[in-house]
Structures are given as structure tokens and as C-alpha cells.
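Record 1 of the preview.
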Amino acid sequence: MKKSHLPLLLMPLLIAGVQSGCSTNHNETVQNSENIQEAGWTELFNGKDLTGWKQINGKASYKVEDGAIVGTTVMDSPNSFLAADKEYGDFILEFEVMLNNDINSGVQFRSISDPAVMEGRVHGYQFELDPSDRKWTGGIYDEARRGWLYPLSLNPDAQSAFKKGEWNKARIEAIGNKIKTWINDVPVASVVDDMTPKGVLALQVHSIGNAADAGKEIKWRNIRIKTTDLTPREGHDAYVVNLVPNTLTDEEKAQGWSLLWDGKTTNGWRGAYQDKFPEGGWKLQNGELQVLESGGAESVNGGDIVTEKEYGAFELQVQFKLTEGANSGIKYFVTEKEKVGKGSAIGLEYQVLDDEKHPDAKMGRDGNRTIASLYDLKTSEKNPRFIKPVGEWNLARLVVKPDNTVEHWLNGIKVLEYKRGSQEFRDLVKISKYKDWENFGEAEKGHILLQDHGNNVAFRSIKIKEL
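->
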């Protein structure tokens, strides 16, 4: 090899040049990486005017000011919506939003605006914007259709993520049947649903009923969407509301959930006080486990069914659908030790009832036999807005903690809490129909039971997580 004869004085300059070249290449690599990361995004708002947007409902005003879309409330108007001019199916949407007041708002996605449906009223999924003391921003509401799908009662840790009076960064991922939301990079809601796979995006200005609320503003900016090469963001481990019947997502499995009913067979279940599933009185059809109508409690056909396994501390989900005037229940800590004759097995009961049409709702004490109550013991504190009508699916959730604290939930809202074995609990038992049963409701573990009360009631999506 031929030796270099460069003067020694030039060597530092050569080294510096090489180092400078390396630095430039590194910066270019970083810049290229950022460009690759940002590739595929489309700006939906140009920051100057409303090109690409149109108002499809309501009379609220929308304008552009200081690089933001500004929506302003008006009296005597239904909910107003400013919609992007095309529909979207799978996407990742990001935007910034500011609210200086307590006016509710939202961003619609995969929503429907069709003159032939609901007279053109916008309906469908909504990313909630809630600056009130309730703090449900980032929750998922089904506008003008099913109501709340994911209230932030299910994820209280996310309630403080939104900052009123500041710009907040929001993110929605709608990929396949999975919908996830973030606010300021905090995971908020996780819903699995396949009702509407595609639809419009729209910015909502909510209707107002008080003239003092007229003229209040909601602002949006930096609205961008990605529709190809979609990669879900990792780390979203919030509670999952899965509305696809009898299924489990990978996220649910990772959180410890398993199906307590497979949606097809009687595996894992048998008749109470029996060694097999009842031959009549129950029907498995279309992914539903149905109690057949037999005329009421005195003429049940198949009788109650119970899990083959017993449970201690657990979390349970059950979707149930009532028919008019129907009565049933979800019982837990059922031991089958009590001799009940032809009666229902003894256990703590999450009441399943048509409160409007069944007389049991007016019996008991202070409404403690109404829907979601601890039957004949403690009344559930329900908001009528969170009770689905007869013929629609309600979601029961039961949480039994290792310290014996028990919670009843209905459609995402906690409606009562008590502690098994506490003095309060035992005092309630003393004045109930269970007063003569020794140590009622205090077994270490027991079966979970679905009640045959002689009325047609359907169950599905029965899931459990042992704690």
C-alpha cells in the first residue's frame, strides 16, 4: 500500500471534515426517519377557509379564525355538524381542540347523514368533548342511536387528561371493528363494534336550551387523517367494551378475560342441583342463551342453570335482553347446599327485570327488587338514561373484590356497592326474605347462576375474569 504524505498540518482539517460529514449524514437520517413516520397523513383543514367541509345539520355558525375552525352556539337549533366532504372507513384521525366553557361538543366519525334515514339527522359514533365537571372527554357516545358506549366511569384514570381552556391533542383509531381514543396521549376508550364500518367525519356544536349559553365557542385545528398503512399505537390497555357477541379480543385476553359461555354449546353449564343441562326450558340460538316463556315463576320449564365451576373474587360481564314484563336474575355465590324444593337456588342476585311492567319492581323495600339491584337487599341507584328498553341489550357487570367488596354496574355505570359479611350487609339480610338462611351470601366461593323465572329472557357475551 502506498503511504500517505499529507502534511501533518492538514490532518486535523481532514478529520474535522470527516466528522462534519458524519454529522450531516446522521441529521439526514433523522430527517428521513421523521419524513417516513409522517408519510401518509392528509390535512383535512387548510388553516385558511372551510374548503373541503360543509354544514349538514343545525344553524350554529362555523368560521375560520387564527388558523382554527370556530363553531359558535346559537339558540333554537338542533345539534349542528360541519362535515368533511368524504366518508372514511378505517383511519387514524388526529386533531387539536379547545373549549373555554362547559358546552358539550364532539367529533363524529363513521357516522350517517342520509336524507332517507332519520330525516337526515346525523347519527353514529362520537368522540365526546366534555369540559364539565363530569370529565368524560374521549369517551365514545353513539349520537342519536344507542347512547353511551364508553362513559369514562369505565376509565376514571383518564378523566383528568383533558385541559379546559388549553389546546388538547386528540387521537381516534378506527381499524376494523376496533375503536380506540386518546386525549393528550392518555389512552381513554376502547370499543369493539361492527355496526357502522364507514361514514362521515363531522365537528359538532351542541344545541343549547339557555340563552346565556349562546355565543360560546369550540375550536379545532391541525386536523389530519391517515387511511393507509395503519399501525395501532401500542400501550392502550384500558377496559374494553366489546359489543361483538361472544368474542374476546387479544386485549381482553391479555387483561385476563375468558368466555364463560362459548355462544354455541352448553359446555361449562348444567342445571342447578342437576348433573347435566336441562333438556327443556332453554334454547341456544343465534348466539343467544334464552330462557323460554312458560308463564311465570310458578311454571318454569328447565329451571335455573349454573356454572360447573365455582368462583370467589371475580369480575363478570353478561349482556341480557328482556321481553315485556319479564323477570330473571344473575345469581352468584350459589352453593346448592340449601334445600329449596322447586324454588330457585339461593344466592346473591343481580336483578334482571322489566321495571315498568313486572309487579316485582313495586314489591320489596324502597325499590330493592328493580333492575340491577341486589335483590331484596339493596336498591341500585340508576339513571334512566342508562337503562336500555325492552328488546335491546343491556350490559350487567359484577365486580367481587378479594376483600369482599361487591359492585353492581349497568351499561357502564356503577349503581351500587356493598361488602359481603359487613355489619351493614348482615343488617340488610335480617330484614330480607333471606333472614332464615344461615350465613347467607357469605360463602368463600360459589357458582354463577342464570335464573329461569318463567319469562323469556336472552343472555350472551358472558365473560369472567378471576381476581
